[in-house]
Design brief:
There is one protein chain. By secondary structure, this protein is mainly alpha-helical. The chain has one domain. Helix content is 79%, strand content 0%. It starts with a helix and ends with a helix. The relative contact order is 0.13.
Amino acid sequence: MAHHSIFDVIKDHDRVLMWLNSLFLMCVAFLPFPTALMGEYGDQQLVVVIYAGSLAVTRLLLSWVWWYVSDKPHLADIDMDPSTMRAFGIRAWAIPLIFLVSIAISFFSVTAAVYSWLLLVIADFVLLRVLR
């Protein structure tokens, strides 16, 4: 859904945007593999690291697409005040940060690392309230 929201405001493209979007979509296409690993071996630390790392990289690439087009007025029709842009930037870092922190937590407890993903819901709720 975030990908569609970003591309709603994009009115043109260049080679860099095509590469960033292709890398993002390759990561999305890869996600069934770590998801299947989680379903089968979710109690293993390496699997949690692979899953969380895959999702962090995927979200960082999507954020990179946003950051790239937000600095290029000829590519995107973005009419946002600076504080809203800053809030979206914070939100773009929150998801990968939670996944990266969960990787660190997995070295102590795999279960705690998996439960730390509940912070995604809380962080998104709080950040959306702040955005409004």
